[in-house]
């Protein structure tokens, strides 16, 4: 393996990570401020966070924060007093969302406790007419051969990852058709044989709404076709990266499915029953919102993934955590970078940040010739990578 490149920071003006810290985070604060009639105290706290993100340094959590000790273990003391731009990008992003929740009173006893600042955007997406169209397509899918249905559901879950509300705040426009492959790596032939009928499928979810719905449809397919005996859906314990799924979002998505006509409602009912009888479990582990790579999985999660038949890791951020948030040469083997993961693992991800591995040299050359480096971050390409 080549030398390990350094962890990505946000300190290079003009780079994608710098843009996220300098532009996307302030835009998210403004969006949240507009979404609720926050009282003056919350508005002041949001203004202070905006100021800190742009000009300030990382400040500690309040002494009373329930998770102060956890964040200390995750590196808070080391980073306190440093610029948001000079610490690992993954760390600053995660801590930004933690501070944002503090500013809106999410963890503080009072009227705003537990109110998801991103819920209006998530619900709008779930209620969008596009969701109706996607759900209606399920009726036709029922009549298709099993292999075709399985591929469609896998691809639905994969491309659902484009539905990321934080990404849309700064995406530069629709996909270009320049003849490059949409799928830059596709190991799906190695994925299905891992699902042998018994055992547990773990799915580390990413976004709510129009990504979570197809994730749930995929889980339903796996359970209904008895490709696994049980499934566990890993979501975030609190609102994160704008649209990341929480337990409340799972319930919203299931309600949406159950209220839809046709095959979607059947699927919603089956998943509801599966949750109720334990064949489907929800997990919202604190590590899901940790600013750390999966190489540092805590023992309980490590044991769960070790025992699973397959763990499906959804989305861009989880991919960064899986392979390490570093500018790997794109041809670095995926199998090597995920050797630390305790069991078979599949990544389903659209490309929305610089990190990528496991490409063949020709694919990388074609993408770069056609698009420069834009293919890495535009969200118009995707990959399915598997380590058995
Ligand atoms: O994980 P997701 O939802 O697929 O993408 C998250 C994302 O939009 O946020 C990060 C920048 O903040 C990037 O890694 C990525 O573009």
Automatic annotation (TrEMBL):
Its cofactor is Mn(2+). It catalyses: beta-D-fructose 6-phosphate = dihydroxyacetone + D-glyceraldehyde 3-phosphate; beta-D-fructose 1-phosphate + H2O = D-fructose + phosphate. InterPro entries: ARMT-1-like_metal-bd_sf (IPR036075), ARMT1 (IPR039763), ARMT1-like_metal-bd (IPR002791). It comes from Streptomyces broussonetiae. Residues 21-363 form the Damage-control phosphatase ARMT1-like metal-binding domain. Pfam families: ARMT1-like_dom. Keywords: Hydrolase, Manganese, Metal-binding. This is Damage-control phosphatase ARMT1 family protein. The lineage of its organism: Bacteria, Bacillati, Actinomycetota, Actinomycetes, Kitasatosporales. Belongs to the damage-control phosphatase family. Sugar phosphate phosphatase III subfamily. The keyword Nucleotide-binding does not apply.
């Amino acid at each position: 393996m080549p030398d390990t490149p350094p962890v990505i920071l946000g300190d290079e003006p003009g780079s994608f990570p710098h843009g996220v810290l300098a532009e996307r985070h302030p835009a998210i604060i403004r969006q949240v401020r507009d979404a609720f009639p926050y009282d003056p105290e919350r508005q002041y706290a949001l203004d202070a966070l905006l100021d800190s993100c742009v000009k300030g340094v990382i400040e500690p959590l309040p002494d009373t924060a329930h998770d102060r000790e956890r964040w200390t273990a995750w590196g808070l003391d080391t980073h306190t007093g440093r610029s948001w731009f000079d610490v690992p990008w993954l760390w600053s992003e995660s801590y930004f969302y933690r501070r944002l929740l503090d500013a809106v009173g999410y963890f503080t006893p009072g009227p705003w406790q537990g109110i998801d600042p991103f819920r209006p955007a998530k619900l709008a997406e779930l209620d969008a007419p596009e969701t109706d169209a996607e759900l209606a397509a399920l009726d036709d899918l029922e009549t298709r051969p099993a292999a075709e249905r399985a591929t469609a559901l896998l691809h639905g879950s994969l491309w659902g990852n484009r539905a990321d509300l934080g990404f849309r705040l700064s995406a530069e426009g629709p996909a270009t058709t320049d003849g490059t492959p949409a799928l830059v790596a596709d190991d799906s032939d190695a994925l299905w044989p891992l699902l042998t009928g018994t055992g547990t499928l773990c799915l580390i979810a990413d976004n709510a709404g129009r990504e979570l719905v197809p994730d749930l449809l995929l889980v339903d397919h796996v359970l209904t076709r008895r490709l696994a005996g049980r499934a566990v859906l890993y979501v975030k314990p609190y609102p994160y990266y704008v649209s990341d799924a929480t337990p409340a979002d799972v319930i919203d998505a299931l309600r949406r499915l159950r209220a839809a006509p046709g095959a979607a409602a059947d699927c919603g009912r089956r998943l509801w029953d599966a949750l109720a009888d334990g064949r489907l479990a929800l997990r919202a582990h604190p590590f899901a919102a940790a600013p750390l790579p999966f190489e540092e999985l805590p023992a309980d999660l490590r044991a769960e993934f070790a025992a699973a038949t397959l763990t499906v890791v959804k989305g861009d951020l989880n991919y960064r955590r899986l392979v390490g948030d570093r500018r790997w040469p794109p041809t670095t083997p995926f199998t090597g970078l995920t050797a630390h993961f305790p069991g078979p693992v599949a990544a389903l991800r659209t490309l929305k940040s610089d990190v990528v591995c496991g490409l063949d040299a020709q694919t990388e050359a074609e993408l770069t010739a056609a698009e420069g480096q834009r293919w890495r971050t535009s969200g118009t390409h995707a990959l399915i990578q598997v380590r058995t």
